[in-house]
């Protein structure tokens, strides 16, 4: 549901009582939520896209904690301001609540230390810019300058884009303000210089790849990385965009009058009217889902080469059924059927280990050793 683009807020899970963070204790913790603003009814926007088979209309602005900031028309008063003290450590809890867009984020003249991603501690690393996917959380430490800087600093976010569809090509901004010293009576914030960060280009895949490669498990005694050494199941999923035929007497906005359809191993998911887990636990899965989702492509092809002529997908509510305590190795292969695209993956209720990634077609003989 696109209702998630309307009213939202953070749910913050704290460590156990008296437990310590595996990093320096912050002076203060601040949630920062990236979102999107639509002038239109968001349910109508996605309903139209599903009906016509085209991409949904884009948002009118991005927001930081619900505010679009000074780079949009008539929005200067609606700007999030992060007020800090010199020489302190702030834990910024970053949450991307945007619907579809991965976002670059940076604070001018400051670095950020990434310490956590999606509720898992990582080996800390310092960066000028972070990349955060929709639905993702990232915790970063902000070390403020040791002395009052006599300046203010923009913090901005804008999308990282790899697909061919339309997107909101705008930038949201907030302001980092230092608390004015009590003996400083000569400067007002309006007269201070305002520094702007430099974000990567919209399609900077090199930065995105380098950033994601830095995400490593903390792998400490207290927070070990217990990667399974024995694999019970091997799956190979091709992921990408295909098409469905346009229904009779309708006009569709996908390629050549078809409808866009995302698929895994050429099966596009049909949303059931009964929840999958509900059907499973009550023993009433018959007619709700089929347990025969393919775990490898039915017809292998050159996934990143010249796109095939046939782009139609099959449709169904199919699942993979696994016994409890099964260790699965999953290779996800992006395809270029209708253009390659960077897209996040989320697995409900589970953590997983990323043990390799790369470009081009996966080679089962050479790539596992990497």
TrEMBL record:
Catalytic activity annotation: 4 hydroquinone + O2 = 4 benzosemiquinone + 2 H2O
Protein name: laccase
GO biological process, one term: lignin catabolic process
Transmembrane portions of the chain: none
Keywords from the named record: Apoplast, Copper, Glycoprotein, Lignin degradation, Metal-binding, Oxidoreductase, Repeat, Secreted
UniProt feature coiled coil, ranges: none
CDD domains xref list: CuRO_2_LCC_plant (cd13875)
Subcellular location: Secreted, Extracellular space, Apoplast
One matching Pfam family: Cu-oxidase_2
Any one GO CC term of the record: apoplast
Cited SUPFAM superfamilies: Cupredoxins
The gene coding this protein: LAC17
CC cofactor: Cu cation
Domain Plastocyanin-like: 29-179, 301-368
EC code(s) of this entry: 1.10.3.2
């Amino acid at each position: 549901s696109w209702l998630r683009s309307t009213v939202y807020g953070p749910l913050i899970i704290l460590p156990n009582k008296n437990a310590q963070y595996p990093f320096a204790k912050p002076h203060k913790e601040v949630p920062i939520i990236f979102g999107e603003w639509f002038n239109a009814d968001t349910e109508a926007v996605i309903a139209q896209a599903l009906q016509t088979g085209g991409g949904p209309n884009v948002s009118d602005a991005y927001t930081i904690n619900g505010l679009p900031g000074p780079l949009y028309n008539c929005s200067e008063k609606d700007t999030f301001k992060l007020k800090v003290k010199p020489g302190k450590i702030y834990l910024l809890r970053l949450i991307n609540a945007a619907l579809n867009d991965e976002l670059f984020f940076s604070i001018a003249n400051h670095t950020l230390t990434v310490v956590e991603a999606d509720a898992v501690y990582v080996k800390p690393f310092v960066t000028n810019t972070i990349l955060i996917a929709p639905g993702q959380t990232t915790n970063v430490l902000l070390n403020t300058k040791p002395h009052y800087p006599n300046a203010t600093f923009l913090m901005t976010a804008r999308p990282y884009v790899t697909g061919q569809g339309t997107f909101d090509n705008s930038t949201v901004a907030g302001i980092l303000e230092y608390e004015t010293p009590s003996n400083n009576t000569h400067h007002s914030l309006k007269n201070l210089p305002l520094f702007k960060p430099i974000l990567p280009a919209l399609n900077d895949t090199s930065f995105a790849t380098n950033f994601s490669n830095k995400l490593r498990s903390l792998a400490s005694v207290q927070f070990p990385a217990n990667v399974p050494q024995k694999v019970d199941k091997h799956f190979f999923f091709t992921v990408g965009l295909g098409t469905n035929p346009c229904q009779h007497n309708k006009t569709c906005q996908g390629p050549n009058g078809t409808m866009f359809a995302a698929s895994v191993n050429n099966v596009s998911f049909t949303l059931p009217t009964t929840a999958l887990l509900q059907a499973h636990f009550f023993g009433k899965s018959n007619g709700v889902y089929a347990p025969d989702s393919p775990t490898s492509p039915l017809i292998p092809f050159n996934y990143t080469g010249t796109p095939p002529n046939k782009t139609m997908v099959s449709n169904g509510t199919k699942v993979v059924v696994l016994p409890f305590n099964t260790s699965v190795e999953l290779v996800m292969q992006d395809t270029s059927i209708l253009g390659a695209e960077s897209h996040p993956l989320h697995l409900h209720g589970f953590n997983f280990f990323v043990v390799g990634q790369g470009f081009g077609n996966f080679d089962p003989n050479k790539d596992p050793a990497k």
